[in-house]
Design brief:
The chain contains 13 helices and four strands. The strands form two sheets. Strands 1-2 form a two-stranded parallel sheet. Helix 3 crosses helix 4.
C-alpha cells in the first residue's frame, strides 16, 4: 500500500503541481567526509570557497555543475589552476569515479595513484560492493590509505536489490529520496528510473543520480 506521502505526491502531480526535491540537506557523503573531501556538486559556494581558498574559482565551478565525471572537473580546475594546482585541488574536492567503468586515465586523476595502483583497481573488476574494493586494495596499502582512496570511487547501487545503506551511500541521497528509489521497484530499465525519479528532481540532478545506479 502506498504511503500518505506517496499518495499526496501523486495527487499533486496529476493536478499539474511541480514537485522537485533538492538533494537532501541531511544526506551524508560518508566516504568523502571521512577523507575531508568536498563534493563540488553538492557543496555550497562558501564550502567550495573554503576548500579551494579561491572565491572566483568557487563561483566558476558553481556555474558549471553538475560535474558528471572526474575528467570534466579536472579540466575545469586545470584551466584555472594549471597542472600542479589541479592536483592540490583534487586532494580537497572530487567527483567520484565508477570503479567498474572508469578509464585508466580517469583513475590516474586520483591524487597519489600511479599506473601500478591503477592496475590493481582494474584487476578486480567487476566490483559488487565497496567492501570488495576495501578488501582487495587493502592487500597493497594500509587502512588509512584505503579510506582515502575509497573517497574517490563508488560501486553503482543496483536499483532492485540495493540495501538502504547502499542507496544512502549515494552522495546527496537521504531518507526522503531513499523512499522514492524503493517506491518504484522492480525497475525494468533505466528509462523507468529516469521517468519516475524525474518527477522529483530536475534534469541536472537526475543525470547526477543516474551515475550511481545500475540494473
Amino acid at each position: 500500500m502506498k504511503s500518505f506521502t506517496s499518495l499526496l505526491l501523486t495527487a499533486l502531480l496529476f493536478a499539474g503541481v511541480s514537485v522537485c526535491f533538492q538533494p537532501d540537506a541531511y544526506a551524508q557523503d560518508t566516504e568523502a567526509e571521512s577523507a575531508n573531501l568536498v563534493n563540488p556538486n553538492l557543496a555550497t559556494a562558501d564550502e567550495l570557497s573554503a576548500a579551494l581558498e579561491n572565491e572566483d574559482l568557487s563561483a566558476a565551478l558553481m556555474g558549471q555543475r553538475p560535474f558528471l565525471s572526474l575528467t570534466t572537473l579536472h579540466a575545469a580546475l586545470a584551466e584555472a589552476l594549471g597542472a600542479e594546482g589541479t592536483e592540490g585541488a583534487l586532494s580537497k574536492i572530487t567527483v567520484r569515479i565508477n570503479l567498474n567503468t572508469a578509464s585508466r586515465e580517469e583513475i590516474l586523476l586520483i591524487p597519489g595513484v600511479g599506473n601500478r595502483m591503477a592496475h590493481e583497481f582494474e584487476e578486480y573488476r567487476p566490483y559488487v560492493a565497496m567492501a570488495q574494493f576495501r578488501r582487495e586494495i587493502g592487500k597493497y596499502v594500509d587502512d588509512d590509505e584505503v579510506d582515502r582512496l575509497a573517497a574517490y570511487v563508488f560501486v553503482p547501487a543496483n536499483l532492485n536489490s540495493a540495501t538502504d545503506e547502499e542507496i544512502l551511500a549515494i552522495p546527496g541521497v537521504g531518507r526522503r529520496m531513499l523512499h522514492e528509489f524503493k517506491e518504484y521497484r522492480p525497475y525494468v530499465d533505466i528509462a523507468q528510473f529516469r521517468r519516475e525519479i524525474g518527477k522529483y528532481v530536475d534534469d541536472d540532478e537526475l543525470a547526477r543520480l543516474e551515475r550511481f545506479v545500475t540494473l
